[in-house]
Amino acid sequence: MPMDDQADDIPQGLVVPGLGDESRRAALWAFLVVSVLSGLALVWPVYPLAVDLTPYVFGLPFSFAWTVGWLVVMFVALVLLYRTDAPAPAD
């Protein structure tokens, strides 16, 4: 039985189907790296290093500025990921 007609129905991406475009794949990898780094920066091994510092950044304690800064980084990463997404073709 020939299976050639069903080969097009199989998703090509490992996690997200349809990752044929290299720029889209690179954008997803960059977002994944930023997400993991920001997650690690806000949990145990890294965050206690930021809590112990006493300077103020824009009038905020450093630990609060650290958290707000990583939230801004994640927001910018999400905006850039959204902008790299191609619009769906109109029906």
From TrEMBL:
Top-rank taxon: Bacteria
Residue stretches spanning the membrane: 26-47, 59-82
Keyword Transmembrane helix found: yes
Keyword annotations: Membrane, Transmembrane, Transmembrane helix
Keyword Transmembrane helix: yes
This protein's name: Polyferredoxin
